[in-house]
Specification:
Length: 329
């Protein structure tokens, strides 16, 4: 396999150089900003398919040409979202195998290969869902959103608040539940939490809100671990999508040790680049479940699957013009 780097003032110019030199069968290996300015693209092609100097690659419309355009769109999007070099290489290498399809399907297939997905259950009857995370991540709002969705669907619901130490810790969740005409159960100790969970009728969706936890502080971790054990809950880690990825990865790994099995990113309505989110999910290996992209309590978190994750990366005009069906993960 022959590899070569190409330079351009932007991604379009660099990709044009790739096509002119290597033809439409070139495989994009990596894209990155060049130290001297502009963009650098590393491409590869099998020696047997390399055009000789006397042969000029054909640019007539063909499936390969269409695939090259799809990969170019994906590479540009990954660069704009500041996806890390190693992860972008993996995604592009996988997407290239599906490049004859539209960009959304190709990138969705790459997301399906390199990320895990574990959606939240729509029905009750399983383990309670406990929302955990650092202060200000959006745990209470996510609990309220899911409570609203369950209430509108006329499902059996119990909402439990455990943030009794912080002044006003229960006020926000209590205000939401009053609007839904639901009672919120305030729990002050782990024994009470265990008893409340044990008496819930079969098929009840149990949502447990928790106080902000510093996963690097032993006392906070011990308190949260006790709540998880007493309730038998399935902890859902809530993290802002615009959080520094280095901090987010450390937090995700710390919460995973406490039992978190899912990652629910928030503030996606205020996040313009999701490269940090992708890095956090990829390196922590926590499955993505849903995502929140609105401060409105009536807009429930949306399921995260390979295609919906790809939609967050690709330009809106590409997504809107694509009629790819979203498949469940």
């Amino acid at each position: 396999m022959r590899l070569k780097s190409f330079y351009g003032q932007n991604m379009t110019e660099a990709m044009r150089s790739v096509r002119e030199a290597l033809g439409d069968n070139a495989i994009i290996v990596a894209t990155r900003d060049d130290e001297m300015g502009g963009v650098r693209v590393t491409a590869a092609i099998e020696e047997s398919t390399t055009a000789s100097p006397a042969q000029k690659p054909s640019f007539s419309p063909s499936p390969d040409q269409e695939g090259s355009e799809a990969i170019e769109l994906i590479a540009t999007a990954l660069l704009q979202h500041q996806v890390t070099h190693d992860l972008a290489e993996r995604l592009l290498a996988t997407a290239t195998q599906f490049a004859s399809e539209d960009p959304l399907l190709a990138l969705g297939a790459a997301m399906d290969t390199h990320f895990k997905f574990f959606p939240l259950p729509d029905e009750g009857g399983g383990k309670p869902l406990m929302f955990v995370g650092p202060p200000g991540a959006g745990k209470t709002l996510c609990a309220a959103k899911l409570a609203t969705k369950a209430t509108l669907a006329q499902k059996k619901l119990t909402v439990i608040g455990t943030d009794t130490q912080r002044a006003g810790g229960m006020a926000q969740l209590a205000a939401f539940t009053r609007l839904l005409k639901k009672d919120m159960m305030e729990i002050e100790d782990t024994h009470a939490l265990q008893d409340v969970v044990s008496i819930q009728p079969e098929g009840t969706l149990v949502l447990i809100d928790t106080a902000g936890c510093n996963p690097f502080l032993d006392t906070d971790c011990q308190h949260l671990a006790a709540l998880i054990k007493a309730s038998g809950a399935d902890p859902v880690l809530v993290l802002p999508a615009d959080m520094d990825s280095f901090e987010a990865i450390d937090m995700a790994q710390a919460f995973a040790k406490l039992g978190a099995r899912r990652l629910l990113p928030t503030r996606l309505d205020m996040t313009r680049r999701v490269g940090g989110l992708l890095r956090t999910a990829f390196e922590s290996r926590l499955p993505l479940c849903h995502f929140s992209a609105s401060p409105n309590v009536t807009e429930a978190p949306q399921p995260m699957n390979p295609v919906s994750l790809a939609r967050l990366v690709l330009p809106k005009e590409i997504v809107q013009n694509t009629k790819t069906e979203v498949r469940s993960a």
